[in-house]
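Teaching assistant's notes for section 4

Start the section by putting this record on the projector. Ask students to predict, before seeing the second block, whether Nucleoside hydrolase will look compact or extended. Collect guesses on the board.
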Amino acid sequence: MPYFSKASMRSIFPPTDIPWFFFPKTLLVLATALSATAKKVFIDNDEANTPTILIPLFAGWEILGVSGSFGSSSYVDSVGSHATILENYSLDSCVPLYGGASKPFLRTNETFHVWEQLYGTLVWEGAWSPYYTDSYTWKDFSYNETLPGAIAMIEAVKAYKDSDPVTIFAAGTMTTVAQAISIYPNLVKEAAGLYIMGGYIDVQYAHAAGSSFQDDLVSDINIIQDPEAAQMVLTADWKKIIIGGNVTNAETPSQDLYDEMIERAGGLEEIQESPYLVGVNETVLSGNYTLNSVSTENILPFWDSVVSAFMVSPEIITHKTSVALAVDTSFNSPFYGTVRIWSHDRAPTAYKTGNVTIVDSIDQDKFYDILVDAYFQNYTNYCTGGNLTELDY
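Reveal the predicted structure now:
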């Protein structure tokens, strides 16, 4: 089996109205393999995330393309880390990889740090950290260099607008999606909708009184790095905009999750030694939550994975709220690059707001089930046969 790693810088649902958790796993795999009308998604992210790729595939969705964009990772690292995941899971021959946005619309490294001097330093600065160093070079991997990610996104949406509208999943900066909208405004009408990771609200107290780690968790870097793009995207007239926001910080590893993965694999030693379980090992590590928590970097939330999970299985959402939303795009503001929300009847009228749905809570146990099931599949034959098989340990 191929080697793989969860190449992140930080760190099923057959098509039916019946909730996925009523299906035995064998039926889920069969339904995935036989689905002729799989839902379709185009993924843009600023750093690779293994479950974000695996969860839609296990759900029976088709990934029409993945683009790596500048943000938490440098441009080359974002594209490169996605290439690593696709290659190690033998998905590179059927999941196209593109280069997304290489830089934000307006914000630059210089203006980013000037703003910090005026209004406060962020704990996590992404690829604009003065200590950031690239992990990849462009010679380390291959991708589709002939087609920009924004154009690939447009073409995917146009191709299926009448038969099976494409969902856009953006888990990094909104720059690539904004590029696509500026080139082809009909994108928002022809796509099925938009799911994003980001959009934290009511986090000032955590910024001021929390530890540096807590401050880091609630820093909305995906929007902060390109506020203008985020405002364009989040106020566009999509059929629906679903935002992860605060709920994604609430879903973290736990001892129960460790125990479930260890039991599924047949023991911690199997996880630590099996090349195909490297990603699982990066989650469970010692297998002991207390030992792992000595370093906060070992217990980061499941951010992008949470949004991917409720995108393909909305049944796990237990509460959501519809609000009007806008992004502060005033450079001379301490809230530059953060979202502001209102009830629809009291939203401002002097500038544009978007109609969005914020997911407030999910069923954590069902999310864990999705995550574990997606991890413990063999994707080796997906591109050649269109089928998955459960790993047998």
